[in-house]
Design brief:
Chains A, B, C, D: GO terms for molecular function: lyase activity. The structure is a homotetramer. Chain A is mostly beta strands. Helices cover about 5% and strands about 50% of the residues of chain A. The first copy, chain A, has a single domain (about 25-180, about 215-245), classed as Beta Barrel (Acetoacetate decarboxylase-like), CATH 2.40.400.
Chain lengths: ~270, ~270, ~270, ~270
């Protein structure tokens, strides 16, 4: 009879097999964000009790591409970069909970297993996808971070393209958008192992960065296209009206969240 | 305020984005199994309370490669096979719980996200890996299912090879091995979102196939090699003595499990 | 000053790094074929001098999915199956050369580098793609090789789905189709390293299997859909009329071809 | 009877399916270089006639990781970055031809098909691999381009790790190394389609960048490890003595090369 260790599975005697280490988790990355308005009913239908539509601009949606290098406090993953680098594309809406406005990730695709595991912990509904975004570079044909610079971003899953966007940087901006600017409110759900017994885990949690640094945000003009897929509902968040688009380079630390309530989502 | 649906995340109004559908889940697959004895202490250290070493042959380990096609009750995934096909390699030991012998998967690698999600539900500690195994075929150089046929199997993760094996079929066998022959006893663990608060989910569950059909098992002679990796502890289950090796084609249905106890693992 | 060896690059002192070994090459695989008629002008425009449209049924096209295990004469690759297994989808038309009817592959996608290298040698215009097809299996939900069995097949490249098909087996068939039934006539082209100097290699070659064995062909009913892509012209071979569809398991040996003529294609 | 177009296969009526467009090809990228001395005989055995060992420091080897974004003159690939981004690791030695010193790539792995195709054209002996290298970033835990910054780089192929290195930047440097600093001298080889007839293409070519811009080179301290593999001979270039290590960001244009001689390599 033993004690097993490890922040995540597989737990072992040493803990060193854990798919993810304990927080804090550190991130360096580039973000490409496009914001638009959809039918607010399409947002509402993704918000389980007790979440409600945000009062202001309730149909606002952000689709964000991120190119990350991440690591634990030891930073050792950065020297074996297959364990540090990943890309993601995710969709954020806002909502209201007890009178406060939150951001909420409703769809997200990543390309590594450690990113899936972190998402399980943080309540991000992650799937695997194939994500690409143009990287800025100081030499050659790739764009500088400067007015007129052009970036592309694409998302696919299960061998189908789900979204693609192009961005043309316009000018430095006071903001990197407003949809993904609040604390995140997420559910952590897992069905009971017994059929018909509902959820074994049903938590409403709040989470956000423990620290943040960033370069200037850049406003951009963007073109976004969403594609249908039999296994995805991203295109159900149809584009009614563009809001804005942004590029920003950031450094983030994540170090845990807060349990808000448990067993109340009514999710089926 | 809405109800969201879906067996797994992301939950939506329709439920059709769920990474995995509700059980029953159906599988067709080929299994290559190699069994060996390791130091029983290496098994014991992977068994959290209240699990104990199996009384008989406590150091027995099975390393199993599986080449699967899986689907929900609708079987629609089989017609879009990127959603049905996956491969896995997994390590099973036995243990004792309340006087009964169980099988327990201590390490497992798969190559699709839907397989990771099922593992979360079933308590398999899944990571992504790159898994390959020779397939039988009735024509050309690939092996028939017959005496003398040779199969290879390999496992890699994070760009490192973790295990490789070759199998030579010898004769039909009454058994497909004994290590993976019991009901599975697994933990379902998720850390609390709040730091220092331990586990939010800590369940001991029992699970197994709801139905099973199979062709004859074949006994094989096998060579197995395990490799070290900074992120894995598979090679810590060092090979002391071979037991046996097997090939078998199976059809399986999984349809839920049973909660044994909760909050008792003492895992850190 | 040394002699370097190896059937293909990289050539070394031992020859053992070669991306592909010398022929003969042996293959075991499952083929799913769908044949249809397109506008013969769409076929003609893919046939450089001196090739001409086939006299009979000149607009016939075959789109074929293949799930292969391949190896050299030593068969050692089969025991390290990451080096043996690959999938491909390819498009075949017929043409006439010196009064004889040939098959010609006009588009092909594979998922391994050794398959790309073989294609360079054999004149197949290979790109990387993501290819999936349902496999027959004797147990569980996957199809048996029997009337009513359903198979799916999909093709994607550069994160876009290019084609998908479903097949329902109907009955055993005397034929596995007629479009891919002739010797292959291919070009082997490589531009001059010097700009504006045309082609350094411009060969018209004939190739085909050195030996062949197979199970019964099965006729099938099929649904095929082609999708547009900015980098592909598969959908330009638009579907005017279905011809037939087939499933067959085969064993093939390839062992070289024959040079027909050189420097005459007029390709730009 | 038609004319087909396209710089590379597949050639079509429009030319738009070509796996690679016509040069010039533009590149933005980050290079991590480690130089060491091996047994000069190991270099000599990789140099076919009429190439000879370089007179000075003939056992010098450079192993280079590169993280590229590349495009044609239209630069359209940069906006669909799955078509622009790739990574590579390659091994360069020097040699002498007609009294002049050249660089020569003896092994190279890339992760995209368009990069394989360019290599065929340029005489790089490309295989597919899995390549990772730490990227510099201005925020968060990833390294800045500055003294003390640490980078990792890894290479794997066929599910086996072949090489890994860590770099610690020391100071700006007048040089980015000397092994990869000459015009490239490469062979373009393709076997005859007819067995026993030798090579159909056997060209010795010279190639190099048409233009080049770069940031400062940084000297680094590096640790390099090479691993054995049954299909690779990288580790045969054993590390006898380190020379130096470097980081540099570059922009490059490639626009064709020059044929030196044909049919003289004596390669088997």
């Amino acid at each position: 009879m033993s004690t097993v260790r490890g922040y995540f599975h597989p737990k072992t005697a040493t803990g060193s097999s854990s798919l993810i280490p304990a927080p804090p988790w550190q991130y360096s990355g580039d973000l490409l964000t496009v914001e638009y308005r959809t039918d607010p009913e399409r947002v509402r239908e993704l918000l389980p009790e007790p979440l409600e539509l945000a009062e202001e601009d309730p149909g606002a949606v952000a689709l964000i591409w991120a190119d990350w290098q991440s690591c634990s406090a030891s930073q050792e993953e950065l020297l074996d970069p297959v364990r540090a680098q990943y890309k993601e594309a995710f969709v954020v809406v806002r909502c209201s909970y007890k009178g406060r406005t939150y951001s909420r990730c409703v769809y997200i695709w990543v390309d590594k297993d450690f990113a899936i595991a972190r998402g399980l912990h943080q309540g991000y509904p992650k799937k695997l996808g194939s994500i690409h975004q143009t990287r800025p570079h100081p030499y050659g044909p790739a764009p500088r971070v400067a007015a007129g610079a052009r970036f592309g971003a694409t998302l696919a899953a299960a061998d189908r393209r789900l979204a693609e966007a192009t961005f043309t940087l316009r000018e430095e901006s006071d903001t990197n958008g407003f949809v993904n600017g609040h604390p995140m409110i997420h559910h952590r759900w897992l069905p009971s192992i017994e059929k018909g017994k509902g959820l074994a885990l049903d938590e409403l949690i709040e989470t956000g960065g423990a620290s943040f640094e960033a370069g200037p945000a850049w406003a951009a003009d963007a073109e976004l296209t969403l594609f249908d897929s039999p296994t995805e509902e991203l295109s159900r968040l149809e584009i009614r009206e563009p809001i804005g688009a942004y590029f920003r380079q950031v450094g983030v630390v994540w170090d845990g969240g807060r349990l808000l309530e448990s067993g109340t989502s009514g999710a089926e």
